[in-house]
Please model this.
Amino acid sequence: MEGHLNSGIFHLCACKTIRTILFCLGFFMLIHNHILSQELVIKGIVMDRESMQPVNSVSVYDKTTLRGAITDRSGIFMISLPAGRHNLVFSFMGYEKVDTSISFIENSNISIFLNPQVFPVEEITITADAQKDQVSSLQMGTFTFSDEELAKLPSLLGETDVLKILQLTPGIQSATYGGVGFYVRGGGIDQNLILYDNTVLYNPGHLLGIFSVFNPDLVKDLSIVKSGIPAQYGGKLSSVIVVDSYKGNQDSIEVKGSLGLISSRVAASGPLFGKRGTFIVGARRTYLELIVKPIVKHAVSSTSFLVNDNSYNFYDLNLGASLQLSNKDLISLSGYNGRDNYRMDQANLKQGNYVDWGNSMVSLLWDHKFNQNDNWNTSISWTKYDFGLSGSQGEYSFDLFSSVADYNLKSELVLRRQRNKIVAGFELTEHSFVPNRISAQTGKFDLKFGQLSPMKALEGGLFVNNEFSVSERISVSGGVRLSAFDHHGPFSENVRNASGSIIDTVYYSGKESLAFFVNPEPRMVIKYQLSSKASIKVSYMRIAQYIHLATSASASLPADIWIPSSRDIKPLLGDQASIGYFRNFSKTGLEFSTELYYKKMMNQLEFLRGIVNISIEGNMESNMASGFGQAYGMEVYLAKKLGKTTGWLSYTLAKTELQFDEINEGYFYPAKYDRRHDVSFTISRTLNEKWSASAVFVYATGNAFTMPVGRYIIQGNVINQYGDVNSFRMPPNHRMDISLTRKITTGRIRNSEFVFSVYNLYNRANPYYIYYEIVGDVEKYSLKVKAFEVSLIPVIPSLSWNFKF
Amino acid sequence: MRKQLLISLVTLCSLTIMSCSDEMNLNIPDPGDLIVVDGWIENGQYAKVLLTRNSPYFSSIDSASMRALVLTRAKVTLTDGIQTETLILRKNEDYFPPYIFEGNEIIGEIGKIYTLTADYGGKTVTASTTIPSSVMLDTAYFKLETGSDSLGAIFLEFTDPPEERNFYRMLTKRKTKDPRYYSTMVMALDDGLFSGEKVGFSITRGPESILSSYGREYFKIGDTVSIKFCTIDKPHYDFWNSFQNEAFNSSNPFASSLSKINTNIQGDGLGIWGGYGVSYFNLIIK
Model:
């Protein structure tokens, strides 16, 4: 009760504070509009001189006024400058810096061409100018990584995983230690919109989330937005993760890859249609079973019911291509297919089990430039995730299948005008869900249950967002997304009487709507530039989420199922307000930021009796509870991005609590992933031309869990009496990883490196789950209960050879 | 199926990376002093009630501490709305713990409501249950497990009454082998999936003691098995179903953390007071 009251006060204070700030900023706006009248708007495009493709995330910085801007995904930037001569610096990793002096007497458009660095020894170092990013950009709660930055970080099992890197930034917590599933500011793992080349990937994990589906050699850019998410993104409450793939280069055939102990990968890219296009193909395969199987056999031999014969593997296939149709039209294609296969047979029990799951996607993107200011992006895509489980034991067999598949069309127009950058467009997604289709055979009886007919839904979004500078100091990014969701036919539904017997079946045709929702979603970020090196930003966003992940576990499991909003399941609604202070120290190359956030989540779903029961009981609604969640916290980020030693420290102080009438007698309780403290520290150092080293340290408060406090006996069974929901804590989780890279610049393959890494260096046994065992002799009435913690992933050294030729 | 899904997931998880498990010490708060009711009444029988207290989770169980848990000095009364009787404590080694309060006036009848009250140490707990109409098995037969020449499961077939919501429990007792009826592996069943239909499924024996791990306990050629097929009311089902879920999930990393065992006991109590509408079927396995 007390927790509820306190958080209510916090909420009230946060709202008041934000109102006050908005009022003050509004006041500033009025003043500055009068002062500033001789400002010019300079627009430009930054291109790669060789490929003639736009380059995004380029830092644009005026040495005279200390103002800066960043290019967007179309390579376009806009900066407002007083008339006169200016010294503009353009820089981005992997390119030679351009330092140019230009006079502006009126609003102007300029084009800048960057030369790629031939052998970028210093590619890793971000120049001082690039640090304008966080202070001058109109986004908050945002982190961006390039492929070069990613390449420097320590690897787990021979790979640098993009989703794991995100977990090292503030406000993002891993769902399972070492896994790719994550929680952003107290939102569930299903509240992250993961876009790979503009296409949603529903389950980005392999092997219970130990690996992500992203082949590191194909990742070009990675970014995450946690607050003030622009209106062009919607459908997920907590974050947007954009992963853009590398589409190859126009000059020559290039082969990249890695040979490792656990998995290997290779990617080939090169020019297409003369030099008008590029292509890339990539593949990755694990052979984990060859190594782990003997160990598992040894490790679990004492546990009788486990294991007889297992096999496990996963693979990824990637395909990408781009084609410059004209100097105004660029088309790019991207495809992905990946699958996990797992088989387990127990000959002694005549049991066979087979589990497989995977994602597939294809997307086609067309980028048309009307002129230097305006462009139009349209993409069509298809994505699918499916999960299957089948098992048999003697006479008895069953199959479980779950899938979600989407067709998506998204089109947006980007217009750059005097002090305004307007993005407007629409998005349409046709979903098809098979939440859980189950059939079981036992003897001569054949049962079919779960949700048998697919559930179809159309999700739409209409959005407009405007970024504009109100004055020299104040910039605003504001927009609105109007989202709608229609659960429609064809659909058949059984009508049951009070006793549960099916008395009728109602059919809905393809045009009929079963449930319809519409939500306006305002979004806003306001930046107040304190100086060229510091700014304050506030943001607010409302997002509606129409699809839910029915999850019962702390891990992101393949068996979690996606279900749409329907008559019985309301859409999830989230409101988030945040305020942040951003500061750069150009002399020392330090970057500092801190953000406070408060997030409310309405219509959260909980599954009262676990996912397996949802399937068995066939009646999802009776197993579901709808409730309220709130999360608030403070994030601190300190990075050093200059020099031979770089790295960052992030710290999050957070609280996430939930309230459901059906759970914990209606009182607020901590979410399983409520972590009070979360610290991560990343450091990389270039030792010399050949050697570099890096290390990561993470520490987080243990997960909350519910524990039995007592027990009693009913009909000879020992039954647990539980304490308050999630009132116990696992021991804290911490570990350190290191990696050492040796570049090889001689020999036939001139660009290769050996990466030696150690995951969990000091072999910390981080608890994954806790179980209890009753030991003793029942005949002698002598029994004892013991608790055991199970930890996964001990110290793992790995060696891989990365090559490029 | 649940078991197989669990096994698959747990094994997959183990396969992921070698796992290790360590014993841990946890400090847990006092569970409070509660009266635990383990009582039932079936048509044609007197009520039976075992009364114990709860104990801290990590306390050890031995015969002395077990006896200390039995509330032999409690006052237990039963009423069917018309008649009221006080149950009498008897020693009975067939039960665990071996002290049981039994009625000798009120005999269970289908359709009636029975209210139980227990007083102990200034605390009072009450509970009510009903005895639903019983359902007869159409047939039961034995089938050898593939590859075995003597072990197998029993297949039951019955017709679920279409006009009502039904909940079932099944217990078995092997003549000369078992002192009392034991629950089958599946502790409780809901007709949600087969309401009004003729259904069939296989049963195996449940674990006999709290130490038996789950594994399929088969019936054997030569066994004479008495099958006790029971209908129960919703609160009674909710108890067994929640226990079944919890027993299955408590050591499962993939389970929900919202475990809670239902009870129909009111006051400072826990447990279940349940009515059974019973029909019997005898099967001689040849």
